[in-house]
Amino acid sequence: MIRWFIILLLIPLSAVTQDSSKPSPLIFSGYLKEMGQFVLPNDPIPFQYTNLVHNRLNFKYKPQGPFSAGLEIRNRYFLGDAVKNDPNFTKNLMNPQDLVNMNVVWYQSNAAVLHSNVERLWVGYQLKKFNMRVGRQRINWGMANIWNPNDIFNSYNLLDFDYEERPGADAVKLQYLVSDLSNIEAAVANGAYNTATAAAKYTLNRDEYDWQFLAGTYAKRFTAGLGWSGNLGKAGFKGETQMFYKKDSLVVNVSAEVDYITEKGWYLNAGLLYNQQGIASEIDDWNSFNFKNTPDNLMPTRWNFLAGSTKAFTPLFTGSLMLIYAPGTNMLIFFPSLTYNLMTNLDLNIFWQSFFAETAHGYNGVVHSGYLRLKWSF
Amino acid sequence: MRTAILILFLMVSIPAFSQTAREVMVKMDEKMRGNTSQATILIRTVRPSWNREMRVKTWAKGLDYSMIYVESPQKDKGIVYLKRKNEVWNWMPSIEKIIKLPPSMMSQSWMGTDFSNDDLVKESSIVNDYTHVFSGDTLIDNRKCWLINLTPKPEAAVVWGKLVVAVDKTDFVEMHVRFYDEDGVLVSTMNGYDVKMMDGRIIPTRFYMVPADKKNQRTEMIYENITFNKPIADGFFTTEQMKSVH
């Protein structure tokens, strides 16, 4: 495995750079991020600092003809308290849904880990009406921007801002194009708890709304759902609902959201998620919340409401604020961020996340963390 | 960025003449649009203390279909916008997702430029959504031009209160446009430069969009190449195609 990685890293970048006038069949991109993360002390949590150097390399091969291929590698070097304080830190870097283990731990000590994983590795075959992709890939069936109950092969997590790509699924995906805006997709993947996730989806466009209907199995349960994406006047209106059924046990998740941009350029969005398996009453201990979401459990809490706004103050400087409130537990998440484009491909980001909740100790801020990130895209 | 997209959608649609002012506008529109067009455009946003460049590829067919692929900067590479009639979608390669854009997005600046999404999409209606009246003659870059006032039709959903367009009398190219708001206040000015032959047509190949109230600020659009009337199937302008175009 390690030898294979080295061979990949030795591919000279000059071989994949391209003349902009003619699309090259080999497309290379990626980024290098340096991020410092602070967790403020809040008894019993001590002050913690962890540094993360994070690199992603994306290769895509798209010659003329029906075949294509993709390879994406994620390399991370963690140093600091998060590694020290968690004996399972390295183990938790692995994706339990990977059918084939392509992780490499290059280096490990008490306070540091250097880890790589192959995030995508697929071969595609495309005809006019039919296409197929085999291997590790992202199957993104989400239509909404905030919460995606239809995204059953994986799940987008809006709190995990540093990993928007999400892990891949080891899968086979087939697609048949019915018409310009209508298609049928079917996929089977290694899913949660080492069970197969298999489902088919029909997508169509009617009266300026995109619709999708899906059905299949997830974690040995029957699952079915629908999603839509359209407009209400000048606002966007999107939503998804998904049910999971097994022997008298029915779980239903629903999301809906609206978004709108004012004349002055303020992007406003509001959304809700009903997550049936979520906690709906006061908790004893913050650790009752599990933020490692799964497609059938997208938040630790049952009812979730989000209000957010994003504004580009100048073309280079953007600010954003997201507030999430979950009644019952009275959980509140305060999530502002700032982005400044220092140079064409260099961004400086500041993120803050504060979590408040009603616990046995009263209502208070439980976890406050700040992140300072530099991102260079290449 | 969004503005530039709108502008692109619009420019792909601009028209000429003996013409009534409307006929002049129809010819001007046809000149820059063709039945189909494919172009590579460099967009430079210029501000007093900084500037940024982006390169896009565009495909357009009639008024209804267009697609824009962002080739650079690297951080935005692979982002695609698709317009089909009234609907606009955005492909985000980093999250491998198609996002439908709300209509209110259309009046916004396109990717930080001085062009709005509307500039791109609505100018397609420069013929049908306005009434056209000759208002005089002028000389721009030694080219004799008509000045034409465009007033929106009452039922038209346009952002502008009035447009003043200067169209070259020989080559029917758009040399100058002034955009006014509903109160008659000048919002921005667009100028065409570097008129030359591209793919058998004489067209301006460099446009500057200059906001009226901001000094030393402009967005430049430079056509690096353009091809007209090369057949493009409707099936090219689809959400599936967004994922593989490059």
Number of domains of chain A: 1
Beta percentage of chain B is over 45%
- CA-based shape of chain A: globular
- Spell out the helices and strands of chain B N to C: HHEEEEEEHEEEEEEEH
DSSP E strands of chain B, number: 13
Report the average pLDDT across residues of chain A.
Answer: 91
CATH topological fold name of chain A: Porin
Through-space gap between termini of chain A: 26 Å
Describe the main β-sheet of chain A briefly: 18 strands, antiparallel, barrel
Helical stretch tally of chain A: 2
Mean pLDDT of chain B, rounded to whole units? 86
Number of distinct helices of chain B: 4
The CATH architecture designation of chain B is Clam
Tell me the major beta sheet of chain B. 13 strands, antiparallel
Number of domains of chain B: 1
SSE run of chain A: HEEEHEEEEEEEEEEEEEEEE
Describe this structure as you would to a colleague.
The complex is a heterodimer of chains A (378) and B (246). Chain A is mainly β and 378 residues long. Chain A has a single domain, classed as Porin. Chain A has helices at residues 2-10, 81-84; strands at 26-39, 48-61, 67-80, 103-108, 112-126, 130-137, 169-179, 182-190, 196-206, 209-218, 221-232, 235-246, 249-261, 266-275, 303-314, 317-326, 331-343, 346-359, 362-377. In chain A, a hairpin with a 2-residue loop joins strand 18 (346-359) and strand 19 (362-377). The radius of gyration of chain A is 22 Å and the shape is globular. The two termini of chain A are 26 Å apart. In chain B, strands 6-5-4-3-2-1-13-12-11-10-9-8-7 form a 13-stranded antiparallel beta sheet. Chain B has a single domain, classed as Lipoprotein localisation LolA/LolB/LppX (outer membrane lipoprotein receptor (LolB), chain A, Clam), CATH 2.50.20. Chain B is globular. By secondary structure, chain B is mostly beta strands. In chain B, strand 2 (51-61) and strand 3 (65-72) form a beta hairpin. Classes of the chains: A mainly beta (378), B mainly beta (246). At the A-B interface, strand 1, strand 11, strand 12 and strand 13 of A face strand 2, strand 6 and helix 4 of B.
